[in-house]
């Protein structure tokens, strides 16, 4: 149960973290990690350019919303808010149909260009549940940028091509993005253009993965494969059933000595799932390490949080 008395802690944490953000996009409160009692269903993201986006994932008592609104009004008169250049607060109700979004302070932009690690991404506000960039993957994108030089990269379930942008910025020779949502790939193309990238280095394949192995293989072999699937996508992907189908294809896709980043963001799936699946389906790929998650995504149980696992092909 969300506790209005706990919102004092919410504003204390947001105040402290927003000071360190500058104009970079960051999660500034992560109640979903269950580290803040009474605030388990609320998050807050600083998007830069003066915009704070708060999300509530489960309907709370009316008193909670009233205390939240009063707290926002007070916060927006603080020096911290003014020094950060704050202008807008939006509240997204993730528990309501269409992820209804309301503007509490200022005017909500329909789109906003955000900056992460010096790179620019375009986000949508108020249109859909996910705005175009998963902030908990910040260190994953940073790892790709630091490890992509002169590599051929395959980005599966590419969404809006965040990994691709990081890879090209890290001087990858070629990146192939595959996602069945062509609209997401179109946004990925925009993201590359926002960063003045050469699109001749980037391919966008708007296909369903399991019907497109021939197209994917044609661009290979690859030095780095990134697998970041949804936990469940109706009619196309069920993580516990279909992940193995991808892993079995890796020997045909990855060069010897090549790398794989295998990701899972389902709280009920343990890191051992990926270790065991890889050992069974592609035993020539050896586990190297699990990447850290951003510290702002603190979680009472690290095994429930995002899992980004690095494997390397031996031989």
From TrEMBL:
Q: Where is the S-adenosylmethionine-dependent methyltransferase domain?
A: 26-311
Record's keyword annotation contains rRNA processing = yes
Q: Specify the superkingdom.
A: Bacteria
Q: Which keywords has UniProt assigned to this entry?
A: Methyltransferase, rRNA processing, S-adenosyl-L-methionine, Transferase
For this protein, the record's InterPro entries field holds: SAM-dep_methyl-trfase (IPR019614), SAM-dependent_MTases_sf (IPR029063)
Keyword rRNA-binding included in the entry's annotation: no
Protein's GO biological process: methylation
Enumerate the Pfam families for this protein.
Methyltrans_SAM (PF10672)
GO MF terms on file?
Answer: methyltransferase activity
Q: What is this protein called?
A: Class I SAM-dependent methyltransferase
Species: Enterovibrio gelatinilyticus
Q: What is the lineage of its organism?
A: Bacteria, Pseudomonadati, Pseudomonadota, Gammaproteobacteria, Vibrionales
């Amino acid at each position: 149960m969300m506790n209005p008395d706990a919102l004092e802690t919410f504003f204390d944490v947001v105040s402290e973290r927003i000071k360190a953000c500058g104009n970079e996009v960051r999660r500034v409160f992560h109640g979903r990690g269950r580290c803040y009692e009474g605030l388990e269903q609320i998050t807050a993201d600083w998007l830069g350019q003066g915009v704070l986006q708060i999300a509530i994932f489960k309907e709370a008592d009316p008193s909670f919303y009233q205390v939240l609104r009063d707290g926002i009004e007070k916060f927006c008169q603080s020096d911290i808010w003014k020094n950060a250049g704050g202008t807008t607060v939006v509240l997204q109700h993730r528990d309501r149909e269409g992820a209804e979004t309301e503007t509490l302070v200022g005017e909500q932009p329909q789109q906003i260009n955000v900056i992460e690690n010096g790179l620019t991404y375009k986000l949508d506000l108020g249109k859909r549940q996910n705005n175009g960039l998963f902030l908990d993957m910040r260190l994953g994108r940073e790892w790709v940028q630091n490890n992509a030089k002169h590599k051929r990269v395959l980005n599966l379930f590419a969404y809006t091509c965040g990994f691709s942008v990081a890879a090209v910025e890290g001087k990858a020779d070629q990146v192939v993005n595959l996602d069945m949502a062509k609209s997401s790939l179109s946004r990925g193309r925009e993201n590359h253009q926002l960063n003045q990238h050469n699109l001749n280095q980037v391919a966008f394949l708007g296909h369903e993965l399991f019907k497109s192995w021939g197209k994917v293989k044609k661009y290979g072999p690859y030095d780095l494969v990134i697998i970041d699937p949804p936990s469940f996508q109706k009619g196309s992907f069920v993580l516990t059933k279909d992940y193995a189908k991808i892993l079995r294809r890796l020997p045909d896709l990855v060069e010897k000595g090549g790398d794989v980043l295998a990701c899972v963001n389902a709280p009920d799936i343990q890191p051992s799932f990926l270790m065991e699946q890889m050992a069974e389906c592609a035993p020539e790929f050896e586990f190297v390490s699990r990447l850290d998650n951003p510290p702002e995504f603190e979680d009472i149980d690290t095994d429930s949080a995002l899992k980004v696992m690095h494997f390397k092909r031996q031989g």
